[in-house]
Amino acid sequence: MAKKKVPEIEPERIETKKEAEKVVKELREALRFHDYRYYVLDDPVIPDSEYDSLFEKLKTLEEKFNLVSPDSPTQQVGGEPREELGTVKHPFPMQSLKAAYEEQKVRDFDDNCRKTLGGKKIEYVVEPKYDGLSIELIYENGSLATAATRGDGETGEDVTANVKTIRSIPLSLLSGQGGAIPSRLVVRGEIYMPLDKFNDLNRKREEKGEQSFANPRNAAAGSVRQLDPKITAQRPLHVFLYEAPLCDGCGVKTHWQVLEAMPKWGLPVNRDMQALVEGIGDALDYHGRMNDKRDELNFEIDGVVIKVNDLAAREKLGMRQRDPRWAIAYKFQPRNAVSKVREIVVNVGRTGALTPVALLEPVRIGGVEVRRASLHNLRQVEEKDIRIGDAVVVERAGDVIPYVVRSIPEERGGREKKFSMPDRCPSCGGDVFVSGDKKTSRCTNFNCPAQLKARLQHFASGRALDIDGLGDKRAEQLVDHGLVKWLPDIFSLSRDDLLTLEGYAEKSAENLHQAIQRARKTTMARFIYALGIPLTGEHLAVILASRYEKLGDLQKAGEEELREIPEIGPEVAGAIAAFFGERHNVQAVEEMRREGLTLENPLYSGKGGEHPLAGLKFVFSGALEGLTRDEAKDLVERLGGWATSSVSSETDYVVAGPGAGAKLEEARNLKIPILSEEEFQEFLDKNG
Ligand code: IVH
């Protein structure tokens, strides 16, 4: 599981600008991380309420200390489009909604509206707030032309082909029920997966040994953001539309009229659950009614949306940076359920981090069965006093992985057991180090098999040293048979060593051996990434390689120096410094050098800076004419890109020449853009 990053900060206590700057940097780093988890990975690690609270804190501090900057998360709508899908620029930004959890905040919203609009009671449209994936549909002359996700609010992902497989979305608008079809219609809504269908899907996935989806929202988002529409077509998806930001020639004056018009064109709108109310009191009542009703519904809602009905009044109220002034989301309190902790087990991650995980008696929360919940760290287990056998309150706030909120000590019968972090790693029996604040526990055995397997898998993977033929299974085998006791061993493996393993014949052993030999010569950026330094992905590896010419220079750079780099926050700087502060790691690098590791660093410029292909992944297949394969790879890596040998959903471009075979096929299946050598050269001329 990803690291949970929630700085504990009270903005009122911060007095100096210097202090505020530091905290603002931390908050931005945390919010960017959570945006990435939510929008890019579809896998958030904190509840919405916690995200909103971080966001508010950042906003308060930025305003109070005049620290607003254009790249702050407060100035964006959030999210990044997934790179493999094409992009669509939204005709109008797709904004977010201001969220309120308390009645007073909703009353403040109403006061503000009334101040601008002349004091009278306002007519509001109230609707459920659906918990799915927001979508924009553009109809040109009655035909569905484009479907896009929200993305970063300005530009979304092009999911037209996928959305066209959803039955409830008409490919062309109905006419004949009154009202001409608008020449251009932009509508927005939410794609969701009904709860019963979601549970069926997960059951089937589990039976097939596939990973189940954490919740219906993830399932819907994952299904729409597929590269292959055939997969989307098999998923039970539905949509509710709720806004029409553009309706050419409709002549509507109110939102209610828009909601009435949409079904006439065959567009699905949840008319039964919408209401037109006078004044905020009635809107608050509606919130209460929906809260009571939410468990009976076959889809998830996480609040209600209160919207000014009159479209001219909306114009008057206008927009803030991220959200309109004419609407507010009044969210429900997070969902809880009581369960029992059957056992607390400990997971070992790649970096040796030990995470306690509660195994729970299965409990349904909001239509989803929950069996496990992360307890994050020992400190939390102790502070919350969670014991094995305890009754506990488990929360699934909106759309997040469940977590244990608190124990219920009153229900103890006396046989509950306190949890203690094991002194020995459950994987290797090595010593466990628990930090003073008990927030981190780590297996200190650098050669712990659980860690070593995960590290070796990462080290050999396509975006790291790209050792063809050394996949996850092979890596496990090498560790299990004692052929790799620490990473450098990989470079001293002989063909004969490989032949002792099951499944290897002369040819495959020779191929893997060759691939390992080739991997000794690599780039600094790849090697930094391959080391698996906590919090250090490819993008950061490119930044570090452009700053530091040699690995030794990076090894020597302390935390202070690393913090000076604009893209690096305190947490990341600390992680890198700690990694190279570990004797084992330095020894491993030295040993690899003795085994012939050589690093080239074409990115070094001494100051970081822009790399036009940073983060883009290329695969070359077939013969190239003007360049050798190595030259082409070099070119890509010099510009900050990555050349990998196998095609996956992570690949951005495949460059195919004569004789390109299976990789080309795979690229076609995955709908990855394919470039000829000439197009590749043009691409470099344009981007390089
Ligand atoms: S209206 C300017 N109505 O909530 C934004 N949004 O947190 C207009 N959402 O991005 C949005 N149900 O994806 C609106 N009935 C509803 C909604 C709704 C869910 C989503 C939407 C939006 C997000 C904001």
CATH class membership of the largest domain: Alpha Beta
- Indicate the overall shape: globular
CATH level-four homologous superfamily name of the largest domain: DNA ligase/mRNA capping enzyme
Main sheet: strand order: 2-11-10-3-9
List all distinct small molecules, including ions and cofactors, that are bound in this structure. Answer: 2-(butylsulfanyl)adenosine
CATH architecture of the largest domain: 2-Layer Sandwich
Low-confidence stretches: 1-5, 77-81
Approximately how much beta-strand content do the residues carry? 15-25%
Q: Tell me roughly what share of residues is in helical segments.
A: 25-40%
Descriptive report:
This protein has 688 residues and is an alpha+beta fold. The protein has 5 domains: 11-75, Orthogonal Bundle (Helix Hairpins); 99-331, DNA ligase/mRNA capping enzyme (D-amino Acid Aminotransferase, Chain A, domain 1, 2-Layer Sandwich), CATH 3.30.470.30; 336-411, Nucleic acid-binding proteins (OB fold (Dihydrolipoamide Acetyltransferase, E2P), Beta Barrel); 449-600, DNA polymerase, domain 1 (Orthogonal Bundle); 617-687, BRCT domain (Rossmann fold), CATH 3.40.50.10190. The protein is built from 25 helices and 26 strands. The strands form 8 sheets. It has a 5-stranded mixed β-sheet. A hairpin with a 6-residue loop joins β16 (391-396) and β17 (403-407). α1 packs antiparallel against α2 (48-64). The longest helix is centred in the first third of the chain and has 24 residues, at 17-40. Mean pLDDT is 86; it is low at 1-5 and 77-81. Bound molecules: 2-(butylsulfanyl)adenosine.
